Amino acid sequence: MLDVYHEEGRKEIENSPFVAVIADETTDVACEFQLVIVFRYLCKGRPVERFWRFYMLDGHDAKSNAECILNVLQPLLIHSPNKLIAQSYDGASVMSDKNMLKNELQVLYQRDELSTTSEAVSLSILLNEEGLNCTFQETLKLLVILITILMSTSEAERCFSRLKRIKTFLRNTMKEERLGALDMFAEQHFVNGIENFNNKVIENFATKKERRMDLIYRKL
């Protein structure tokens, strides 16, 4: 199930123009170092924060954290490394043509339905719904960057609250893969939105290795 969950998450990240990463660490009940990674990006015009997984670290230092985060990011952004932005990011290429952005903003604020919209998310959705995403390309890129930039690490902190409920003293030998898979169930809204999720899980399980019985039914 976690494989299917990650595959659908990869598709969303590939279709998103930008992505931000949230990472935080803690020591669990078994005194093991846990790093949680959460991704923030736009999905269908709205910002989402997807829990990715817990990772057990060998060391409690910056080097161990950096290596783990880079190992997770590399396969996700191998074809588009510039997609990753951070809160301190201030060199956006969309600002290179300042005159174009200035002209778009001037036209935008002349329209009553657009000038009265005060939130970045609402304005981004409105531009897409009105079919103006091609007209206001630079403005839309700027809005997407503002929405994707992280405001806090609250989502990562919530993951640690779930960690305490999952990995208790009675289950303190639980390893990384099972822990991440169990915490995946907290992303119920995302999982429920995956089309044919059950069938995808069954196919993934059946094709992972050779089995005595053919678990995939195929119509002739």
UniProtKB/TrEMBL annotation:
This is HAT C-terminal dimerisation domain-containing protein. Residues 134-182 form the HAT C-terminal dimerisation domain. InterPro entries: HATC_C_dom (IPR008906). It holds the Pfam family Dimer_Tnp_hAT. It comes from Psylliodes chrysocephalus. GO terms for molecular function: protein dimerization activity. The lineage of its organism: Eukaryota, Metazoa, Ecdysozoa, Arthropoda, Hexapoda.
